[in-house]
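Lab meeting, item 3. Inverse folding demo.
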């Protein structure tokens, strides 16, 4: 049977979407199809019962063949130390990583750029998961607006660095990079 669409082979992919859009599941399935051993770099921490339950649910969904490293801020170092050709990595998620950096007083702009520069040099495949937070209402507070802006810039930077970017809506992936370049014609 002929595939209806050509397959996109890549070493780096950004999976964007809203809350509960299916982006983490999509990233997990891509990694499981790519390699028998996988690494999840989780940026969340179980600071309350609800988050602990979410983390436990995500671990159970992953099943066999997964190693997990929990890293809240030093993502570039962990990626460099653990990327290898025979293992797929999923980073879930860049939004929590960004919040961790901001609340720790780190220079968010510098860390975003470091991550963007690191992507191409990684020794193995990686899928980044990130929230698209700019589609809703304008946040009420200056901190909320700053975070929305940082997240938008981070998503742009990582999308530019990755081979492929996918927007996940209702569990369905929509490839946004690479994309055909529109051309306006005069008739």
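The presenter then showed the designed sequence:
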């Amino acid at each position: 049977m002929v595939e209806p669409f050509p397959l996109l082979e890549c070493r780096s992919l950004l999976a964007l979407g809203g809350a509960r859009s299916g982006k983490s599941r999509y990233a997990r399935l891509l990694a499981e199809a790519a390699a028998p051993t996988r690494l999840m770099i989780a940026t969340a921490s179980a600071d309350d019962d609800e988050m602990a339950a979410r983390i436990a649910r995500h671990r159970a969904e992953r099943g066999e063949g997964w190693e997990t490293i929990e890293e809240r801020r030093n993502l570039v170092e962990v990626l460099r130390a653990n990327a290898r050709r025979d293992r797929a990595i999923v980073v879930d998620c860049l939004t929590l990583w960004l919040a961790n950096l901001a609340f720790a007083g780190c220079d968010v702009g510098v860390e975003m750029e470091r991550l963007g520069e690191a992507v191409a040099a990684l020794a193995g495949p990686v899928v980044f998961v990130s929230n698209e937070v700019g589609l809703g209402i304008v946040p009420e507070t200056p901190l909320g607006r700053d975070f929305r802006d940082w997240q938008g810039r981070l998503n742009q930077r990582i999308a530019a660095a990755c081979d492929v970017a996918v927007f996940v809506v209702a569990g369905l992936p929509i490839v946004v990079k690479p994309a055909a370049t529109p051309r306006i014609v005069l008739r």
